[in-house]
């Protein structure tokens, strides 16, 4: 509740094994609310909440006039329900008269007070607690307790609830909690189930600690179509990402396999991984690591790799640098490496960490030819947790665990010489250097290994909190020219530094401080990705989306200039078709931005001698902040080229009143109903507490020639999922906030995609699924309502006709009650054509 009142998004793990740890509800509460907010004179207000006994069964809570005061009063009520040994009937008198009234300005935090739902909070919470007297709370009851507090926060004019609630996969009560939450009567009026109203405050997720069956995935996707809730979260992937500092790619996959067999097996495996790294840890840290629901090491750029590929129709076999293989991936066809079996296996190289701490191994490659030993010196620079193999045993060992004298498996291509009887590599030194630089690797199925010049190397690969807070920053890509590489570098570096600086913050709450110390995390996000790619690739990219983003689509044998630069030079590259071009350069942009972020954060942490995060990139929902620059939210496509956007405010909020003066319309929000649960229609009805401001919106590229011929509402769920997974795999190291919109005939196809992504360990953690707004009428007063070009022009003209003052002037009037000096004759401050500074 405290975090939500400060504007943070919050999450709660409400799985059955967690909820069972709570004490039972012992007492029945009779709550008596005394007075109304604002009734006490100003001099009698106090910041802190007071709780004291009146007699053995009667208690008084005087609610403090502060954020902490509200939180403490809420907490005290729950504490009274659990206190003591015997069940009692307690009378709790809650005095709210010292809370400031609705409409009073919040001087430090901004906005105005709106405690309209605070008195009812105590009655609703007591009702939930009383239902559980004599037993422990259920997960759904815990959810309701949290969401009732969220209702007060939203009405308090801080923000939307921004909540996530994670339930056990087999919790049937939670799975159907929101079923038929809203219903429409014969007159078309909307009603909500009053007992479950608070459930609107958060999204519900089902946590799977094993790989779900296809039938379970299909059932979940079907339920989400009808209720918008019950997304599948694959916990093992989230936990593996949260332990990226100890799990190499091969052990990450083994960890997920072990975890799916049983959580305890996963725990043992993680403990062994920590021990193998000589990490000093205790059960507390292990608990923390296993609770992170929510790195790629490798080789430096000059490392020579034994490869085969075709380029411009010509076959190449020989040594190629790891950096070159990553940077030239667009032009190298049929790239293969030699695995431990001596087979040529397809792969792709990538920069797996743009700023890694580098170790160096030196030694001798010993080959026995006709009974004589031939020695050749070698040196390999790599990361400390990159693995090689002990001699011929195929037992992986990390570089930081090597010792002088260890014998490592030699490259397989040495055995092509029929005179070579045996070969191995003997380590003569291994040490950590003071260098930080980019490192590279690839993924090889089955054997997870490939040949270097002298050594046979293990391959690495993929990359996600518990009791923690994540510092977030967001780049608005819609404002950046896709061809302006310098601007992109600056934007992502600035975002990275903004979040990295906050790693110096020390929390007053012990569990948050502990999490920060052992698991520092940051999250650099972006919004407007879809707009950025429209500008980068044009209308043809939209047409590819309309076709479902299939492989083998568009013009063939393209020779196109890359929208990215390499060393200041534009590159021309051959592509089989448009789809290959789009997909590869989407990936290139995403990888590049991640590299910029991770390098900037690594350099900052090294400079300031603080622990470096192992997860730095994420994508937020970005629904509200995207409105500031007219960006399509996060990675998502917009709802349409033109739509009505509805935003929630407290009734008579200065910003909402300024919107009215500026010409926008307002309607009551979903939370405002009459005594029968019917939504109100009049925003000035005394029963109305919240407003929705309706803003006609047009995306920045709506008038691009040919764009109007693309129907965004027809973009398939499969195309959305494909694009989401591009972001999840190539940019995000935490999780990508995603809402996939779909129609009933897409349920099975979407279930197939999710099932395959989990089964094949493609990096899926979770995604919300929502029925298309035009395919379902289960949600009234939608945040987005698509409109035609003609309707947009009509609504925009009406806004202009209603406009009575500039937005700046209106906001100043409603915030301070003071208008600009009449002699200025125009809008306020910098909105004016007369600069008040000059």
What is the number of helical segments per DSSP (H or I, 4+ residues)? 22
Low-confidence stretches: 156-160, 460-465, 565-571, 821-838
Query: What spatial form do the alpha-carbon principal axes imply?
Result: globular
Mean pLDDT: 82
Helicity range: 25-40%
Give the strand tally: 33
Indicate the proportion of strand residues.
Answer: 25-35%
Please state the structural category. Answer: alpha+beta
Rg over CA atoms, rounded to whole Å, is 30 Å
Summarize the main sheet: 5 strands, antiparallel
Spatial gap, N to C terminus: 46 Å
Q: Would you write up a description of this structure?
A:
The chain is an alpha+beta fold and 838 residues long. Helices cover 31% and strands 26% of the residues. It contains 22 helices and 33 strands. Strands 11, 16, 17, 20 and 21 form a 5-stranded antiparallel β-sheet that branches. Helix 3 (67-82) links the parallel strand 4 (58-62) and strand 5 (89-95).
Layout of strands and helices, then pairs:
Layout: H1 2-5, E1 10-13, H2 16-19, E2 28-34, E3 50-55, E4 58-62, H3 67-82, E5 89-95, H4 118-131, H5 139-155, E6 163-168, H6 172-175, E7 182-184, E8 190-192, E9 202-208, H7 214-227, E10 231-234, H8 235-242, H9 249-261, H10 263-276, H11 283-290, E11 299-300, E12 304-311, E13 314-321, H12 322-327, E14 333-338, E15 344-346, E16 349-369, E17 372-383, E18 387-390, E19 395-398, E20 407-409, E21 420-442, E22 449-451, E23 456-458, E24 471-476, H13 485-501, H14 510-518, E25 522-527, H15 529-537, H16 539-546, E26 556-566, E27 569-577, H17 578-608, E28 642-650, H18 654-662, E29 665-668, E30 690-698, H19 717-730, E31 739-742, H20 747-759, E32 768-771, E33 784-786, H21 789-802, H22 807-816
Parallel strand pairs: 1-6, 2-5, 4-5, 6-9, 9-10, 24-25, 31-32
Antiparallel strand pairs: 3-4, 7-8, 11-21, 12-13, 12-14, 14-15, 16-17, 16-21, 18-19, 20-21, 22-23, 26-27, 28-30, 28-33, 29-30
């Amino acid at each position: 509740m405290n975090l939500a009142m400060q504007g943070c998004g919050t999450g709660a793990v409400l799985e059955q094994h967690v909820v069972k740890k709570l004490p039972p509800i012992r007492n029945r509460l009779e709550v008596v609310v005394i007075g109304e907010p604002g009734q006490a004179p100003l001099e009698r207000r106090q910041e802190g909440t007071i709780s004291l006994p009146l007699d053995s069964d009667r208690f008084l809570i005087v609610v403090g006039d502060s954020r902490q005061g509200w939180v403490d009063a809420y907490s005290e009520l729950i504490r009274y329900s659990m206190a003591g040994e015997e069940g009692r009937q307690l009378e709790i008198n809650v005095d709210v008269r010292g809370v400031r009234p609705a409409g009073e300005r919040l001087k430090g935090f901004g906005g105005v007070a709106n405690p309209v739902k605070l008195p009812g909070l105590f009655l609703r919470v007591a009702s939930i607690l009383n239902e559980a007297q004599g037993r422990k709370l259920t997960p759904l009851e815990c959810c309701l307790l949290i969401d009732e507090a969220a209702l007060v926060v939203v009405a308090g004019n801080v923000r939307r609830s921004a909540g996530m609630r994670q339930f056990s996969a087999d919790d049937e009560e939670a799975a159907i909690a929101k079923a038929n939450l809203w219903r429409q009567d014969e007159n078309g009026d909307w009603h909500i189930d009053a007992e479950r109203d608070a459930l609107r405050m958060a999204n519900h997720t089902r946590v799977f600690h094993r790989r779900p069956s296809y039938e379970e995935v299909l059932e979940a996707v079907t339920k989400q179509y009808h209720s918008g809730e019950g997304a599948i979260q694959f916990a093992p992937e989230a936990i593996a990402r949260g332990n990226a500092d100890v799990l190499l790619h091969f052990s990450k996959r083994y960890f997920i396999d072990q975890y799916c067999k049983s959580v305890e097996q996963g725990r043992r495996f993680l403990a062994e991984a920590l021990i193998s790294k000589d990490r000093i840890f205790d059960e507390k840290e292990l608990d923390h690591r296993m609770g992170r629901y929510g790195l790629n090491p490798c080789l430096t750029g000059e490392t020579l790799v034994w490869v085969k590929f075709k380029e411009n129709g010509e076959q190449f076999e020989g040594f190629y640098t790891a950096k070159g293989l990553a940077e030239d991936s667009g032009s190298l066809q049929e790239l293969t490496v030699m695995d431990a079996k001596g087979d040529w296996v397809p792969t792709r190289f990538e920069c797996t960490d743009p700023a890694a701490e580098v170790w160096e191994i030196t030694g001798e490659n010993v080959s026995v030819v006709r009974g004589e030993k031939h020695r050749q010196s070698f040196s390999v620079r790599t990361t400390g947790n990159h693995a090689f193999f002990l001699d011929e045993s195929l037992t992986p060992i990390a570089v930081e665990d090597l010792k002088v004298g260890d014998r490592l498996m030699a490259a397989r291509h040495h055995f092509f010489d029929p005179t070579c009887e045996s070969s191995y590599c003997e380590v003569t030194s291994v040490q950590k250097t003071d260098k930080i630089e980019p490192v590279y690797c690839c993924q090889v199925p089955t054997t997870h290994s490939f040949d270097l010049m002298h050594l046979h190397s293990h391959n690495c690969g993929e990359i996600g909190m518990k009791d923690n807070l994540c510092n977030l920053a967001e780049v608005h890509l819609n404002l950046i020219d896709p061809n302006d590489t310098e601007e992109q570098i600056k934007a992502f570096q600035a975002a990275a530094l903004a979040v990295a600086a906050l790693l110096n913050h020390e929390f007053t709450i012990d569990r948050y401080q502990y999490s920060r110390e052992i698991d520092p995390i940051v999250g650099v996000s972006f919004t407007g990705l879809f707009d950025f790619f429209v500008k980068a690739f044009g209308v043809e990219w939209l047409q590819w989306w309309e076709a479902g983003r299939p492989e083998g689509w568009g013009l063939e044998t393209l020779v196109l200039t890359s929208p990215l630069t390499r060393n200041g030079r534009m590159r021309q590259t051959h592509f089989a078709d448009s789809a290959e071009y789009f997909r590869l350069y989407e990936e290139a942009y995403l990888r590049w931005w991640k590299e910029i972020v991770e390098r900037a954060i690594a350099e900052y942490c090294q400079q300031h001698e603080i622990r470096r995060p192992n997860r730095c990139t994420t994508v937020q929902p970005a629904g509200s902040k995207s409105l500031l620059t007219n960006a399509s939210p996060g990675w998502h496509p917009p709802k349409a080229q033109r739509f009505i956007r509805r935003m929630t405010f407290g009734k008579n909020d200065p910003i909402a009143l300024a919107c009215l003066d500026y010409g926008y319309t307002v309607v009551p929000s979903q939370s405002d109903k009459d005594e029968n649960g019917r939504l109100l229609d009049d925003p000035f009805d005394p029963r109305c507490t919240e407003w929705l401001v309706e803003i006609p919106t047009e995306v920045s590229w709506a008038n691009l020639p040919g764009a109007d011929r693309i129907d965004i509402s027809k973009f398939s769920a499969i195309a959305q999922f494909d694009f989401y997974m591009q972001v999840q795999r190539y940019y995000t190291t935490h999780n990508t906030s995603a809402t996939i919109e779909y129609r009933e005939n897409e349920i099975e196809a979407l279930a197939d995609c999710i099932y395959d992504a989990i089964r094949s360990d493609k990096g899926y953690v979770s995604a919300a699924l929502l029925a298309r707004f035009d395919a379902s009428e289960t949600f009234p007063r939608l945040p987005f309502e698509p409109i035609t070009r003609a309707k947009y022009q009509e609504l925009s003209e009406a806004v202009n006709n209603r406009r009575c003052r500039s937005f700046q002037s209106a906001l100043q009037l409603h915030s301070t009650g003071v208008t600009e000096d009449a002699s200025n004759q125009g809008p306020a401050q910098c909105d004016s054509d007369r600069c008040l500074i000059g």
